[in-house]
Protein: BTB domain-containing protein
Organism: Pristionchus fissidentatus
Amino acid sequence: MEDINIDEFLILLNLIYATETKIDESNVEFVVKLADRFNMKRILDRAEKWLNSDDNDDMATHEKLRLSDQYHLELLQLNCLSSIDSIEKVVEVKKSDSYQFLSEEIKDELFDKMVKLWEEGKLAA
């Protein structure tokens, strides 16, 4: 376990044992990564709940979408995709650093979203 940062692992343990440690933007990425690695469903659920909450409005949709895709957080993925309701938001995801890490399935979903927006007249032809 040489590749695990001890401080990050201690935060994970504090989350498991119901201390006052909370998931926030500063720790959510490594908490999800470690919880996934050690198959900690309860911690993944807590992280997904936090990611879907109003407490993290500062986190970009493309970052949430990347986490949802990488760690199979289905509810978060649905919420992210449903929040992309304009061409500007699709372009924002496409131009982000996160885009290269998205699966082909998510990229297909984004393409389908663009087609739907075009059909609804929300895209310039």
